[in-house]
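Bench log, entry 3. Co-assembly request; chain sequences pasted below exactly as received.
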Amino acid sequence: MAKMKLTTRGVSSTTIGLVVVLVIVVVAAGAYIAVTGVGTTTTTTVISTVTTTATSTVTAVSTSTSTSVSTSTSVSTSTFTSSETTNTNISATLLEDGSSLLYPAFNLWIANFSQYYPNVHITTGSGGSGKGISEAAAGTVNIGASDAYLTISQANANPGLLNIPLAISAQQVNYYFGSGNALNKIHLNFSASILAQIYNGTITTWNNPQIAALQSASVAAQLPSTAITPIHRADSSGDTFIFTSYLSAGDQYWNKTYGYGTSPTIIPSGVGITATGNSGMLTALSTTPGGIAYVGISYLNTANQLGFGYAHLQNRAGNFVDITAANIQAAVNARLSSVPTNETASLIYAPGANSYPIVNFEYAIVKTTQPSASILAAVQAFLTWDITRGNLGYFLLQVHFVALPSAVAQLSLTQVASLHT
Amino acid sequence: MRRQRTPENRGDRAYRLATAAVAASIPIFMFAILIFIFQYSLPAIRFNGLGFFTTSSWNLGNLNTAATVVKNGVTGLPGASYGVIGLLVGTLFSSAIALLIAVPTSIAIALFTAEDAPRVVREPLVALEDLLAGIPSVIYGLWGITVLVPLVQSTIAPGMSKVLGFVPFFGGGTNTGYGLLTCGLILALMVTPIISSTVRESFAKTPSELKEGALALGCTKWEVQRRITIPFSKTTIAGASMLGLGRALGETMAVLMVGGGSYAALPSKIYSPISTMATAIVSLLDSAFQDPTGLALYSLAEVALVLFAVTLAANMAARVFVSGGVTKAFVSRSEA
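Structure output for the full assembly:
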């Protein structure tokens, strides 16, 4: 028996060796095919696989956007570079985590910031806004990133926590009818009340008369009888916060029954499916024909590359508006006078004929009391840089963000200056 | 024999004490974890009461208010309600589907690799089987998202709905590839190597006298396998299944990636999105940190406690079956 076992072992290890060699050969062959290229088909599969991991997607986003934008903004880059001097006095390592919507912007900012502050090292994460807030409150990160401001209960529980706007973002509603479907190229009209009924399972098919009523006659006729699969975030997300804020503002029933918040459990369970992170939302949508998903605007380029359509949303004035910089700006201007000094303000469902309805501040969540002088200096330098230099079009255009109006930027700088050890 | 009173020198004694102390850490850790989870979930047990096991709900309550409510001496947010039944059903159903597929498959694999396969085929097959058992679950999950989910969405689910549509739970719309069925399939794939390798070893131990005797009596190979090999390993098959069940119940990453996530709804059909207890703990953890009363975290700990109990039960059942008396009884009966 023992002898037999011994021989078995001997042969097994040879076979394992053979299997390993086989695997290496297959991988090498795969790599060869990928490199030499089976043309466009290979590229698209790479994109869709990459979207499943947050880090890689963003690299894909930034590379693709920078190539498209670089030509138009090369002038501003050169002027920008000459105006800043290198500061080596501040030396610290900062941790950042939170919003996956802000994550691409942070990566752009940090790459440039670190050229001028070479001794400040910042690591970024995209664990979701809820994580950004809770980690900043617990002190496990120096800067939490959030699309949502602090709720009353969070602010009460953490009196020393500030929310400081760094930029203005928006959110699009994407849908997908499957590869090659002409409807993907049409901007469908949606209202908060229709989206609310889709997300609570009342409206279940695309050709529902209520959806059709919002479209032009020719588009309405094209709507298929396919089932609608609403996709919502599985992690605690600022995108869920601003999306459900829109539904609450525009739909009485949603507001009374479900409300708004970052928790995935705000949205009724079991109606559609869930996905983690903005990149996860895109992956889920790409494999779910008939799906609908809310996605941060910094992922608009990726969404377009994947062939998804995005909606024109009904604003408070009743108009269906596109997610353009001008329409986002209109919403910000309409709410500008109501931004308090602690900058806890909603830009959702702003009045005005052109205001895009899902607009929000991108917040840095930081503690008023910083652990050390060097960390204080680094946090202040970085946040100040984000609010001033970081708001230049060179950075914001790449992620479709809009710059803070000067009044709000001033409030943010005052908050940054109030940090102390 | 072990307790021979031989004079021990000091070094031996110290060595023995040291190893005993290290070995003692196993039960200590086990109980430390159990006590911790229990203690941590105690406020939730008091707040949620028995409703935790009869409702399907996961609601943190109203975060946009400073108000709180007190129930059984525990503070929570207004409107907070927690119930595990949806997660429990998701866990048990996905594991059940996995076992329904994996057990027959594993027996077939084990029969082939233990008895029928020629040596040239058997060796690489066994080696591959062991490799398959060692693949990290996140890789299964990634494969699930990129290959299995689109396949279920486009082919498997619509096909099943069409053919088995008359059976309750199998009919209805199949618009997405994420859900209970996909979880069951991916779990089946993950537990098959575990079950089949255990069963194979047991098959290989079937006394050859019995098989030769049966062959001599004119049984066909199939009859030998059906009447001798499989019955001989009956308890091992049950035990290995429980072992696979233990793995399937606690599997997190792969299920999280293909489950579709439904925290508070019972699956209405086999294609419905689900969460299991393990995936819910992962995906609801960061939102639970937002609850300033801490109740959401305690409730997740209560979910962990239920998962712990269910997994422990499965593993203990496996232990009883695998080491259990039935195999021995069979052997002693056949020897007598």
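DSSP finds 17 helices and twelve strands in chain A. Chain A touches chain B through 53 residues (CB under 8 Å).
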